[in-house]
Amino acid sequence: KIQVIEDDKAKTNEPFVTGVRGQAPPLVTTSFHVRDQGNASPRFVRCTAYNMPCTADMAKQSQVPLAAVIKPLATLPPDENPPYMVDHGEGGPIRCNRCKAYMCPYMQFIEGGRRFQCSFCNCVTDVPPHYFQHLDHTGKRVDCYDRPELSLGSYEFLATVDYCKNNKLPQPPAFIFLIDVSYNAVKSGMVSIVCHELKSLLDHLPRENPEVDSVVRVGFVTYNKVLHFYNVKASLAQPQMLVVSDVSDMFVPLLDGFLVNVNESRQVIESLLDQIPEMFADTRETETVFGPVIQAGLEALKAADCAGKLFVFHTSLPIAEAPGKLKNREDKKLIGTDKEKSLFQPQVGFYNNLAKECVAQGCCVDLFLFPNQYVDVATLGVVPVSTGGSVYKYTYFQAQTDQERFLNDLRRDLQKHVGFDAVMRVRTSTGIRATDFFGSFYMSNTTDVELAGLDCDKAITVEFKHDDKLSEETGALMQCAVLYTSCSGQRRLRIHNMAVNCCSQLADLYRNCETDTIINYFSKYAFRGVLSNPTKAVRDTLVNQCAQILACYRKNCASPSSAGQLILPECMKLLPVYLNCVLKSDVLLPGADVSLDDRAYLKQLISCMDVADTHVFFYPRLLPVMKLESGSLPVAVRNSEERLSKGGVYLMETGLHLFLWVGASVQQELLLNLFGTPSFSQIDSSMINLPVLDNPFSQRLREIIDSFRAQRSRYMKLVVVKQEDRTELIFRHFLVEDKSASGGASYVDFLCHMHKEIRQLLS
C-alpha cells in the first residue's frame, strides 16, 4: 500500500498535461502541477476508468463502476490559473442546437468555419456571424488558442439574463446567522464564542476582489422556543429586538433593517453581538425549536428576493411544540436488524418539504451542532444535505478544548469560495449517459442536480451507464456545466470537459483504472444503501461486486500459470485493503461506543467528499516522526499496530483527527525536543497543541501539522496518545489493517476471504 503511493510519487516529476485523451492522472497522494490542455484538471474531475468499455456487456462482465467524481469549484494551488471567464455577448454562450452542449475543444468546425458539428450528439449548428473565424489547413480555427473554450478543459461563461431566475439578474446573496440561546448553548460558552467571533469575522465575508468590500448582506436571529429577530439598521442608536412567539406560522416581523450592509451598520451590529450573551446569561429555557428557525431564514431571503446561506448554531433535539418537532428515537436494539435502516431515514416528512422550498429560493443551510445527547442528525441534516450545505458536529462541546476547532471551521466556512442557486448538468457523447448522482443536492427530475449552494469543498459523484455502443476511435466525452450566482451576484456557467478512451479488450480496461476513485464511488453507493437495506446486505453486495471485478480480471487477463494465486491488476493492488476499510467503517459496522448520530453524521459527510478526502478517511496516513528533514515528509508506514515501535513517535492523520502516538520508551532527547520534558509520565495527554519550542525538530513537526490542516476542509484537533493510555482505544480504531473491536476483519484475513470468493466465482 505504502509502496504503491511512494512509487507514484517517484515517477511524477513532470507537470501533468491534460491534453492526452485517456491518460490517468497521478494519485491523490502525489503532489503535482497540472497544465490544462483541453481536458479538465484532475482537481476538478477524476474518473474510475480512463478506458471505458465499448459495450454494456463488457461493463457488466467486469463490474468496474463507471463513474466520475466532480468538484466543480475546487480550489487550485497558487501556481495554477483559475478558469478564465469567457463572454459571448448578449446572445449568451454558443451551444449545440439539439443537445445544448456548450462550445468546447471537442466541437468540429466545418464548411470553412460557418457551421460546427457537435461531438456529443453529432447535430450541426450554424456559427453566429459575430463568432465566425476562418479555419487553418488542419481544420482548426485560427483563433483556437486565444479562446479558452476552444483550447482548455475548464473555463467559465458569463451568463445572460435568460439564464437567471424569472429572467432578471440576481441580487447579491445574504448570510443570516441564527443562534440557539437555550440553557445548554449559553452554559457551554457557545453563544459568547459565536458572538465574539462574528465581530471580526464579518470583515471576511466572501468577495471576488480582495480590494473591494463584500456585497453580501447579513442578518441576525436568536431563538429557543421562540424567535428573536433584530433590527440593525444603520440609523438606529441601539439594535431592536422583535419576538415571534407563534412558531406555527413563521413570518419575518420587519422588512427594513433586518438584512444590512456590514460597513454601514457596523456599530449597531457590534452592539448587538455584545448584548446577546448578556441578555440570555441567566436563561432557564432548555427547549428549542428547529423547523421554524430555517423557515425564518428562508422567509427573510424570499422577502429580500435573493439567494443566500443560513448559519444555524444549534444544541439539542427540538422537542418544543412547533413544526418539525422531533422525539428521541435512538434504539440500540435495532442495530443489526432489518429495522436499523429506519434510524437513517428522517423521522418526519416536514424537513424534506422544507428543503424543497429552500432549494427553490437558493437558500443553503450550514448547521453547527453542539449536542450533549441524541439530536437526530439523520433528520436535522436533511435540509443542509439537500441544499448543498454542511453539517459540523462538536459533541460535548467544551470551550477550552473545542473552541479552536469550531472557530477554524467557522472561519473557513464563512470565507470560502461559494456559488448560489446552482444547477449542474452532465452531458455525454452518444453511447453513455449519467444515470445516478451522489452528494449534497436536490433533484426534482432525472437530469438536473440542483444546489442551493455549492462551495469549493463539495464533490458530486456521477455514475454512467451504456445506452449504446462506444467506439475506440472517438472515445467517450462528458461535459459538466454548472450554472450559478457568484458571491458578488454575477450569473455564471462553469464548464468542465473530459474525454476518455474506449476499449474492446478487458485487459485495457484493467490497465487504466483508478482505485481511489472506485472506492469513493463504492463508499457513497454503500452509505446511501443503508437507507433501504440492512447493513449486512450492503456489506455483502460490496464484497460480491469487488470479487466479480477481480475474478473477471483473473479469468480474462491473468496468465494461466498462476492458478491458485490471488492475482490483482496493477492499478487495483489496493482495492481489497481499501474496500475492507469501507466495510468496517462506523457506518457499516459500528462498535458499541459509536452513536447513531455519529453514523448519520459520517454518512452525510462522506456523501460530498472528493477522492483525496475519502482516501485519507478510509486509510489514514501514519508517519513515523522520529527523524524529520525540512522540505520532505517521512515515508508513511502501514496502519497496523505491529508497525509501531515502543521507542517511536507517530503522527496519524484521518482528515477529521490528528493523533500523535508516543511510545513508552522514547528517548529523553526526543521528548525534550517535542514536549519540553524528558519524562514520559510527565507528558500532559490533554494538550491540544504542541508546545512552541525553539528547536528544529519541534518547529518542523508543527509545520507538518499546520500543512496537513491547511489541506483539509475541516480543522483537525490534535490528540496526544501515550502508549497504554485509555485514548489508545480511539487511536487503535484507525489502525485499519488490524482486526477491529466491532468484528471487522484484519487486512490479511479479508484478503483470504476475498481469494475464496474469487475462486468460488471462477469454479
3D architecture notes:
- This protein is an alpha/beta fold.
- A hairpin with a 6-residue loop joins strand 8 (115-117) and strand 9.
- Helix 14 (535-556) packs antiparallel against helix 15 (575-583).
- The protein is globular, with a radius of gyration of 27 Å.
- The two termini are 29 Å apart.
- It is a peripheral membrane protein.
- Belongs to the SEC23/SEC24 family. SEC24 subfamily.
Shape: globular
- Radius of gyration over C-alpha positions, nearest whole angstrom: 27 Å
- Structure classification: alpha/beta
Distance between the termini: 29 Å
Beta content: 15-25%
Poorly predicted runs of 5 or more residues: none
Number of strands: 27
- Average pLDDT works out at 95
Q: Largest beta sheet, briefly?
A: 7 strands, mixed
Count of discrete alpha- or pi-helical segments spanning 4 or more residues: 21
- The helix fraction, in percent, is 25-40%
Give the oligomeric state of the chains in this entry, treating copies of one chain as homo and distinct chains as hetero.
single chain
Overview in brief:
By secondary structure, the protein is of the alpha/beta class.
Keywords:
single chain; 763 residues; alpha/beta; seven-stranded mixed β-sheet; 21 helices
Write the layout of secondary structure elements.
Blueprint: H1 2-11, E1 16-17, E2 34-35, E3 45-47, E4 51-53, H2 56-62, E5 67-70, E6 85-86, E7 108-110, E8 115-117, E9 124-126, H3 148-151, E10 154-158, E11 174-180, H4 183-187, H5 190-201, E12 217-223, E13 227-231, E14 240-244, H6 266-279, H7 291-304, E15 308-314, H8 350-361, E16 363-369, H9 377-380, H10 382-386, E17 391-393, H11 399-415, E18 418-428, E19 432-438, E20 449-455, E21 460-466, E22 476-485, E23 491-503, H12 506-511, H13 515-529, H14 535-556, H15 575-583, H16 596-607, H17 611-618, E24 621-624, E25 649-653, E26 657-662, H18 668-675, H19 696-711, E27 717-722, H20 728-732, H21 747-762
Parallel strand pairs: 1-2, 4-23, 6-10, 11-12, 11-15, 15-16, 16-17, 26-27
Antiparallel strand pairs: 3-5, 5-21, 7-8, 8-9, 10-23, 12-13, 13-14, 18-20, 18-22, 19-21, 22-23, 24-25, 25-26
